[in-house]
Amino acid sequence: MLIAYISKDGKNEKTLHGLSIYPYSLYFFNYYRFFRGLLFSKQFMRYKTPITTIINYLTSIKKLNCNCFQLQYNSFFSIFVLIINLEHKFMKDFFKMMFASALGFIIASFIFSLISMLIMFAMMGSIMGSFGKQESFVLQNNSVLNLRLEGAIQERIAESDPFTDLVGGVPSAIGMNDIIGAIRKAKNNDKIKGIYLDTRLFAASTATLAEIRQELEDFKKSGKFIVAYADTYTQNGYYLASVADKVAINPQGMLDVHGIASVPLFYKDALQKLGVEMQLFKVGTYKSFAEPFTQTEMSEANREQVNSFITDIWNTMKTDMAASRNMETMQIDSIANQFPMLRKTDFLLSRNLVDTVLYESEMKNYVRELLGIDTDTKIPSATVAEMKSVKTPAIRKSTNSIALLYATGGIASGNRPNGIQDKYFVNEIEKLRKDDDIKAVVFRINSGGGSAYASEQIWKAISDLKSEKPVVVSMGDMAASGGYYIACNADKIVAQPTTITGSIGIFGMFPNFSGTLDKLGIDTDVVKTNEFSDFGDVSRAFNAQEAAMMQAYVDSGYDLFLTRCAEGRGMLKDSLAKYAEGRVWTGNQAKEIGLVDELGGVDEAIRIAAEMANLGKSYAVFEYPRIRSPFEEIFSKDKEELAAKTLKSYLGESYDKFMFLKNLKDQDYIQARIPYELNIK
Questions:
Q1: For position 652, what pLDDT does the model report?
Q2: Which of 416, 447, 485, 539 satisfies CB 3.0 to 4.6 Å to 455 for a cystine?
Q3: Integer CA distances (angstroms), 173 to 180, 199, 432, 645, in order
């Protein structure tokens, strides 16, 4: 704001903005404020011509009385003109600044948007370039399949994971279907002469290992070679490597064969320190899911079943290894008891665990000899990822198609593609039922169960599907509890010898936080309209009547579970009950007691489905649900699935434990679930 300073004696005349200001007292500023307020008053703004308004005011008062002086009529015009000039100057500068700022913001936004678009196009170009490289891969003559195993081996993964490609540094994941597909292509392609098996640190269950091992054994029937090399063989890695024609190891390397152990954790005492009590309602002597929360050690029944299934799994593994290495199974046990991981390579050679001790460069020269190429020549090779782009005869959907429907993860209520959510899978099953080109369905299950309610919904959808076309279940690593619930009604069930299945039983578990509230000094009270209005209140324990009602409800659910399984398997309910009680079985054991029909992998299930549908050998197999393309992964609204994939890559075997704890608050009350952590090592 501009102020005109006038000397007290009134002699000094000041000039402001080219206007002469007559010498008055310092009270001039008061009149400036008066006229400025007048200029922008509501009454002033009603008039079309502001000058007319001021003149009307001035003519209405010929004189203005002040304590200090008489302000004459013509002086008002001088002050008024000054005010108008000042406000005009101020508003002019204000609009200049405003338009300049707006223009600067627009220009900056345009530049920022342009740079962002350039970065985005560069990133997309990089991604497309990587896709292009995969597409442009050309398999050379006299090649080997470089079967490098590391990270988590999952049932299947998307063709490319753009999110992990962009962030970088995320542990790799590889699809079992991609591994098997690469081995099959290598077997049937004359350009590939053998497999170089490079097993590193990777996570996979014994049933997944069995699928891959069977495929390697089938590959050997082609007469092509398999060689294995590693600095360190884990037990799982050696289980696969033992198939090889030659097993080599670094002279300072390590090899682990130790057997199997289960080491569960128990949280009861920790929960007690927090004042938390878990109220358990279950049916099944062997139903052990809740034991970590309610006990400090295994029950005798649980110890019995764990010992039974890990012994059977180990028997299968040591039998396979012994057969491949021309040894007796008892020799494998003897070696395991000497813990070869801490032994020198001389010990490994003397026990026939490996064939030779070589450095990697020497091993590659050995491969060159097998290929008949010079030591200076680069070994032509193809990775699992590169084998995806190796073309095979185009397969189109025909009127003779088999659907391979994957169901992997925990069973829950919901409509998302991650995990096994009932609404989503019921919709997928309905599509297959209505598709006349689909003549049979192979239902590939890899699940330890979950919500009993969601399991019942999927069971009903499979029943409807079965009424119109053959349904064959292929069990993966695990199809237990709720996983068996959704499988039991299929026409046939196929499992690997080491698949974990059974666990026919249910439970309900409710926390009681009254002890926690006591520790915190928090009290609660209740006002209710009916007797059970506060049923399930976590601030108190169930009373005797509520507990009895809850147990009866769980009993009813178990009876329904038994009924579903007995009808699906064509067994008497009483006969099936002897193998239920929540007990876990291996695929081997389940076949003996009638819970599964055949032992084998996905291929065996597909063969049976084709036979049941009378398709002969002329049919195509298509996988469902459809794997989303890379662009769909990036722009999908379902960011939870993309995050889950990345998290699973990071956590590996601990992913299921994490997700159980994360989703605990959203779990249905009644669960048909195997222990989320078997801790098999």
A1: 55
A2: 485
A3: 15, 14, 29, 9
